[in-house]
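Record 1 of the preview.
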Amino acid sequence: MKQPGEREKIKVALIQMDSKPKEKEHNISHAKELIRNNAVDAEFVCLPELFSTGYNLNLMGDSFYELAETIPGPTTEEFGRLARERSLAILGTIVEADSIRKGVLYDTTFLIDSSGNLAGKYRKTHLYPAEHSYFRPGSKLPVFELEGIKTGVAICFEHAFPQIFTILALKGALMIFIPSAVPTGYEYLLNLRSRARAQDNQLFIAAVNRVGKEGEISFCGLSKIINPRGEVIAEGDGSREQVVVGEIDLNLILKERKQEPFFRAMRPELYRPLVKPL
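->
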C-alpha cells in the first residue's frame, strides 16, 4: 500500500452530473463522455449516487427492479473498459440486484481499478428512511486498496454517521468518497458534514453530488474535495454540470495526525453505549 510520504499528490475528479430518470443507456453514455472530456489527468474518478438510473424514489418506483443489475455486470464491464482505456480508477453507484435472491436490491458503489478490474463493492449500510421501501442495507464497512491507496466509501445520508468514518479510518482509509443525491434545501448538511468528517478523522473526503431535477426534486451540486484540516480544496457550484478536479497530498494526513494525535487519544472503553443499550 502506498502510505503518506510515498506519493506527493493524487488527482481526483468528481463528475457532478445530471441524470435522466429511467434512461440508463443515456446516463451511462453521458457519464462516460464527461469522464473522457474532463478527467484527462485524473487518477481517481467518482460518479454520484444512482447516476445511471436517477434517484427520485416516487418517480422511479418499480423501475428500480427493471433497471437493477448484478455487480459484476454490464455497467461495471463498460466502465472497466473505460478505466483500462484511460488508465484511471472509477467509482460509481448503481442499483444492484442480488445475484441469488430475486427482487432484493442494494444501493451499491462499485470500485474499478486502472486495469479495468473490479476492485470491490460497497452496499449502503445506513439507508435514508424512504429507501427501505426499495433497498436492503449492507452489513459491512470495507476498506479497499485502490491504486495502492486504502480507500473507503460512504453513500449520501451516511455522512450523518461519524462512526462510519472513524471505523474506516481505523481500518486504514486515507481517502473516503461520498457519492450523493442531496436535494436542494439540504446544502447545509452536505457542507457541514463532509468537512466535519474529514477533520474528525484527519483524512481526505471526496464528496460528489447530483445536479438537475427529477420531478419535484432538485439536486444541489456543491461537490467538493476536502483535506484533513476540513478545508475545501476544490468545489463545484450548485446549478450546473461540471467536473470538479483537485490534487490531494497524502503527506498532510501525517502532519495533522502528528499535530493532534486523535486516534492515540481515543478511549474505546468509554464508547460501549454505542453498541450496548444504556
